[in-house]
Amino acid sequence: MLVGGFNQSSLNVALPEIAHDLSASADQATWILLGYMLASTGLIVIFGRLSDMLSRRRMFASGMLLFTLASLAVGFGTSAWVVIVLRALSGVGAAMMWSTSGALLTSSLPRMMLGQGMGIYYAASSVAQLIGPVVGGVITDTLGWRWLFWVNVPVAAVATYFAFTMLRKEERPARTGRFDIGGAVTGFAVLGSVVTTLSAVSGHGWTNPTVLIGLLLIVLILPVFIFRERRASAPLLDLGLFRERLFAWASLASFMNQFVRFGLLLFIALIYQTLYGFSPTQAGLLVLPIAIGTLLSSPWAGALERRVRSAVISGVGAGLSLVGVALCATMIWLPHWYLVVALGGFISGFGGGMVITANTSAIMRQAPSDSLGSVSSVRVMIQSLGVAFGTAGVLTAVAAFLPPAGKAAVYAGHNGVLSATARDGLSYGVPLTLGLLAMASVATIYASRLAYRGFTDDLHLGAEPKVVTAA
């Protein structure tokens, strides 16, 4: 989780240097990021299902090996398209790891320790988010962008060795069924369209032709995928999962939580660089408390689950997230109260870590042992989509009052070319965006309440959970 997260978060700051060194076009630079996102998000559910059929241990270890070799090779890339292909292969390896890591934790840890294990798992992700942009910038400026990938190799190689030699071997699955090839093809097409569309929205707005084509594909392919999965004897995605109250509403709470946490991070950094002249380093320091909050709360919430119900932890965390957004809203009237904004980010990140840890451990504790890979992969996919939707939603809201030229500049990150009129329009988008994030926080609270209604999980008493289906 740490290596994969660092690889993803550190690349954003190095992308201009990579594009310049490889003489990459704007589209090629976009695909250096998008190729990884497509593979890592679009293949998660497929590898989750395959891991249940074959071996989660081998899937994870093979993904770690592929990720290691691809990272090594990317550093030797001599053209943009070579780097794009190798980055996509890294994304395949990441999908193999992320689809199985939660399932391996669930099957390896005692039930009483699962929350704590998940907390450490998400803390590692926060560390990657925390150090990725800073360390990535330092490495790029001193050693060059190729070392961003090479520094992963020793750590990833050691992790690969331990994955093959120390992870507990699993019993052969009692039932596997046939692999749903049709579901895999249509499912990847849907997820690929969603990721590509949201990426295009973040870069060009909703009227871009790529966005319109992507939306059309989603409308056409999604019903085919759902129809196919309902009729399949062994579907890639068991749609019955969404009839279980805990899974459905806890997943929605996690989706909205990611929407708020990553949307708030992008929003604060964008506004303070654009309107108030912050450098990237200054903006990074201002949003740093969001990651620190999640880093501190995730393991704490996991340990707390041994004494306090997941419902309470998730609900309190969602409430804290709303409080954090409210504190950040002081920037509307008092933008120079930096400490208040930073405190709001910290509280929101702290609450977010509580939500994601509590909901994840609750979902995985009640998942059937022969479907852990599938359940875990769907959960990770939903959380990843929350990040993508949060990014697109924030950029859409903050640029809502800008003229077309101003929107294009903001979407492309060219903040220095904004006119005074465009800056005024951007300032009008500040309360709209904060309102959007506040509504998403309220939705997180509501979904957390519904998720645990009628759900009994007396973890500290050692009782087995009672799963309630959604109404």
Describe this entry's structure for a reader.
This protein has 471 residues and is an all-alpha fold. It folds into 3 domains: 1-175, Growth Hormone, Chain: A (Up-down Bundle), CATH 1.20.1250; 180-235; 237-471, Up-down Bundle (Growth Hormone, Chain: A), CATH 1.20.1250.20. The chain contains 17 helices and no strands. Helix 2 (26-42) packs antiparallel against helix 9 (181-204). It starts with a helix and ends in a 20-residue tail after the last helix. Mean pLDDT is 83; it is low at 463-468.
The mean pLDDT is 83
Note the total helix count: 17
What is the count of β-strands? 0
Q: Characterize the main sheet.
A: none
Element order: H for helix, E for strand: HHHHHHHHHHHHHHHHH
**CATH homologous superfamily caption of the largest domain:** MFS general substrate transporter like domains
| Low-confidence parts | 463-468
**In total, how many domains does the architecture comprise?**
3
Summing up helix and strand content along with how strands pair, one would put the structural category as mainly alpha
CATH class of the largest domain: Mainly Alpha
User: What's the end-to-end separation, in Å?
Assistant: 35 Å
Helicity level, as a percent range? Answer: over 70%
Strand-residue fraction?
A: under 5%
What best-fitting shape do the alpha-carbon axes yield? Answer: globular
Tell me the CATH topology of the largest domain. Growth Hormone, Chain: A
User: What integer value in Å does the Rg equal?
Assistant: 21 Å
